[in-house]
Design a protein that fits this description.
Growth Hormone, Chain: A, about 80% helix, globular
Length: about 400
C-alpha cells in the first residue's frame, strides 16, 4: 500500500496534452484499423493466417523499434523530438492504405505506420513518467491511456458514419485519417513542454552491459510478465473476424472496436488511480481472470450476444492491465534509464505479439475460431499460475 495522496497533488497539464495527442492519433489510426481486417479479407482476399502475420509483423516492428528509440532518448536527454518524428511518420502513412491493392502493400503501409509508433512509444511513456509526481503516477498513466482509448473509440465511430455516408467506399474513408494525425503532431509540437534534465558530462551508452546491469531483477520480472500477457492476448483483428462469423457486415465491423474501446476508456483511469493504492499483483491477477472469461465466451459461440460480451470483457482486461504495466516499469527502472526500460519491455512484448498472432491465425485456419480463443485462455491460466508462483515480492508491490 502507498501513503495517502497529498491534498495538493494533481496530474500536470503536460500529461493531459500528451493524452489528447494520443487521442487524436488513435482516432486517425483506428479509423483505418477498424476496417482493415475486413478490407483485407473481403476486398483483397487475404486469409486469416495472412491477416494474423501482417498484424503480428506490424506490431512487432513497432515494439522492436522502441528498443532503439527508448535508449536514444536516454542518451540524448530528450524525449519530445523522437515523439514528434514518430507521430509525423504515423500521419504520413495514412494515405497509403487507400492506395493498397494487395496484402503486401497493406503490409508496407502498416510497417511505416508502426515504425512511427515505435519511435514515439518509449520516449512518450518515459516523458509521462518524467512529468508525473510519484504519488499519482498510476493515475497519470491511466489518464493518458484512457484518452488514448477515447481516440480508439472515436475512430471506429467515425468509420461507421463515413461508411454509411459514402456507401461503403472504404478507400475514401481511409483518406480522411490524415486530418486528426496532423492535429496530433501540431498539439505535440506546441502544447507539450519537456522538463529540463540537467547534464553532468556526456551520457553513457544506455545499451552498454554496465548500464543495462543497473536495471534490477524486478524490472526483468515485469518484462517477463508483460510478454506473457501479450502471448495470452493476440491481435484484436481476431475479434473482428469472430464478429463477422456472427453475421456482422463490413460497414458495421468498426462497432467491434467501439464496444471494446468504450469499456477500455471507461475503466483505464479508475484502475490507474486504484493502482496507486492497491497491490499490483492482485490487479494483474484480476486482469488475467477477466481475459480468461473473454476467451471463454468467444470460444463458446459466434452468436452476437456472446461475441459482444467477450469483446467487452476484452476491453475491461485492457483497462485493468495496460496502464498498470507501464506504471510498474516506471517504478522499478532508474529515472535516467526509463526510455531504455520501456524499449526492452516493448521489444519482448513485440516478439510475443508476433508469435501469438501467427499461432492464432494458424489455429483459426486449421482448427477453427474456438481453438484460437481456447488457446488464449489456456495461456492466460499458465500466466496466472506463474504470477502466483513468483509471489508479490517479485513485483513492485
Amino acid at each position: 500500500m502507498t501513503a495517502a495522496r497529498p491534498a495538493g497533488s494533481r496530474i500536470p497539464f503536460g500529461i493531459v496534452a500528451l493524452g489528447l495527442v494520443s487521442l487524436l492519433m488513435d482516432t486517425s489510426s483506428e479509423l483505418i484499423h477498424s476496417l482493415l481486417p475486413a478490407f483485407m479479407s473481403s476486398v483483397l482476399g487475404a486469409s486469416a493466417l495472412t491477416i494474423g502475420a501482417i498484424e503480428g509483423l506490424a506490431e512487432a516492428t513497432a515494439l522492436v523499434v522502441k528498443v532503439v528509440s527508448g535508449p536514444l532518448s536516454d542518451w540524448l536527454g530528450r524525449r519530445k523530438p523522437l515523439a514528434v518524428l514518430g507521430y509525423g511518420l504515423g500521419t504520413l502513412s495514412k494515405p497509403l492504405f487507400a492506395l493498397a491493392t494487395s496484402p503486401a502493400l497493406v503490409l508496407g503501409a502498416r510497417m511505416i505506420d508502426r515504425v512511427g509508433k515505435g519511435l514515439r512509444g518509449a520516449p512518450r511513456d518515459a516523458l509521462v513518467a518524467d512529468l508525473a509526481p510519484p504519488d499519482v503516477r498510476g493515475a497519470a498513466f491511466g489518464l493518458r491511456q484512457s484518452l488514448d482509448t477515447v481516440g480508439a473509440l472515436m475512430g471506429p465511430l467515425l468509420a461507421v458514419g463515413l461508411m454509411l455516408l459514402w456507401a461503403d467506399d472504404v478507400r475514401a474513408v481511409f483518406r480522411v485519417a490524415i486530418i486528426p494525425g496532423v492535429l496530433a503532431v501540431g498539439l505535440l509540437v506546441f502544447g507539450v513542454r519537456e522538463p529540463v534534465r540537467s547534464r553532468r558530462g556526456p551520457r553513457p551508452n544506455p545499451l552498454r552491459p554496465r548500464e543495462l546491469g543497473r536495471l534490477p531483477p524486478r524490472y526483468w520480472w515485469v518484462v517477463g510478465v508483460g510478454a506473457a500477457f501479450t502471448l495470452a492476448r493476440f491481435s484484436e483483428a481476431f475479434l473482428v473476424l469472430r464478429a463477422q462469423q456472427g453475421g456482422l457486415g463490413m460497414g458495421q465491423v468498426p462497432l467491434v472496436f467501439v464496444a471494446m474501446n468504450l469499456v477500455y476508456a471507461l475503466s483505464a483511469y479508475p484502475f490507474g488511480r486504484l493502482s496507486d493504492s492497491m497491490s499490483h499483483t492482485r490487479l494483474l491477477a484480476l486482469g488475467l481472470v477477466v481475459l480468461i472469461g473473454a476467451d471463454a465466451v468467444l470460444a463458446w459461440s459466434s452468436h452476437w450476444g456472446w461475441v459482444w460480451l467477450g469483446i467487452s470483457l476484452w476491453g475491461l482486461h485492457m483497462g485493468i492491465t495496460q496502464g498498470l504495466l507501464a506504471t510498474m516499469v516506471a517504478e522499478v527502472a532508474p529515472a535516467d534509464l526509463r526510455g531504455t526500460a520501456y524499449g526492452f519491455f516493448n521489444l519482448l512484448s513485440g516478439l510475443a505479439m508476433l508469435v501469438a498472432s501467427v499461432v492464432a491465425g494458424l489455429l483459426w485456419d486449421r482448427l477453427g475460431a474456438p481453438a484460437t480463443f481456447i488457446a488464449g485462455a489456456a495461456f492466460s491460466v499458465l500466466t496466472l499460475v506463474a504470477i502466483g508462483a513468483g509471489g508479490p515480492r517479485a513485483l513492485p508491490r
